[in-house]
Amino acid sequence: MPALNPPDFMKLGSFFYTSAWIILTVPALKAATPLTSNDLVAEALHRNPEVRFYESEISAARGGRQTAGQRPNPELSTSMGGMGIVSQVDGIAWSATISQVFDFPGRMSLRKAIADCDIELAELGLRQFKAQLANEVRARAGDVMLLRRKEAAARSVRERLEALVSVLVQRDSGSVSALLERRILEATLLTSDRTLTDASKAVREATASLAVLCGRAPSDPISIQAVSSSFPEAPELGVLKQQAAQTNFDLQQKRLNVAKQGLKVDLTKSERWGNITFGPYMGGQTAGNTQIEAGFVFSIPLPLWNKNKGNLEAEKARTQQAEALLGATLRDLERDLAVARSAYLAELDALSRWRPESENQFADAAQQADEHFRLGAVPAATYVEMQRGYLDAIDSLIESRRNAWKHRMEIERLTGTALTGESITPKLTHR
Fold first, then answer.
1. How far apart are CA 362 and CA 344, in angstroms?
2. What one-character DSSP code corresponds to residue 423?
3. Which CATH number covers residue 190?
4. Which three-class secondary structure state does DSSP give residue 341?
């Protein structure tokens, strides 16, 4: 084997180093691929165990529909015994009957209709859960993105303060003014530590909640693609009410329950007549001579004493309860829509006062204050006030956007549809 020159060794070492770095980092890069809110929603719908529960409810309701459409099995009854006639030879007496129970006309159709309502309620429950889960995931994802920006701003201020305090310690002149300036900055650094800690805790809490919704472990990191959340203008309250009256899941469920109770009242009315029994019979005896008898059996209960009034009154009362719940749900929906829309418009009004370039200007001013303080052109009070003002302004902006996002998600949950249109607020910059 030929000897390798030192440059060859260097090339070979560089090759192995590069290959090892690629092997080690490619999975990490793949794992850290930023996800959109739609990706997180799809993951949550796929992994959330409660989805399986609602799907099983639909299967159970369909099984009930099959049962409601089946007739009862026919019944076979037989009897056999001895029979004796004076001065005649004893013999055997027997009889056999096959009877089929039939529902009163229209009763099976009512049971099928009630079972269909159960299926529709189960399917509506699944759609409602999926819509609410998607709404919650989008709300949490937007919250995580905004809180991370708040954390980044707090960390940048803290890092500047920490670096500046370390520089002042190194060039301490021993004067009283220099000592006081250092103490001011150290106190501000401790305050910024508290701000950064609170921001980090909020990020971890929001990330853990989002991870659980997506079916992950609470400690799993989630990389979310940075996108600007939009805040379109909210329609008029009357338009929102009309939309909610058609697509709100709670209202649809209450309407179905009212319709289902109406069917139960009709079914209870028909049940006072009982079931119809019909079938052939045959009997015979061999005492003295052989006799065969055949015919048909028909029976129906006569509602003379038990007219099923108690059950009928109970079902009518339940119908009134279902109608009252529908009215209460509609009233609460109108109230919640008015509150959510008013809060959303208030946050939009606060955000409309921000110029698109305001965030960059505050960040640049905080950086310039740091640079000029190091040069001695800015006093410590101005420097501290600028850093604090930058954090307060960013905190106000992000909290307004978080609240606006929360109220927007609430409006979409109440109406069952997404708000559309151009965003009327300045976009959060990404630098």
1. 26
2. B
3. 1.20.1600.10
4. helix
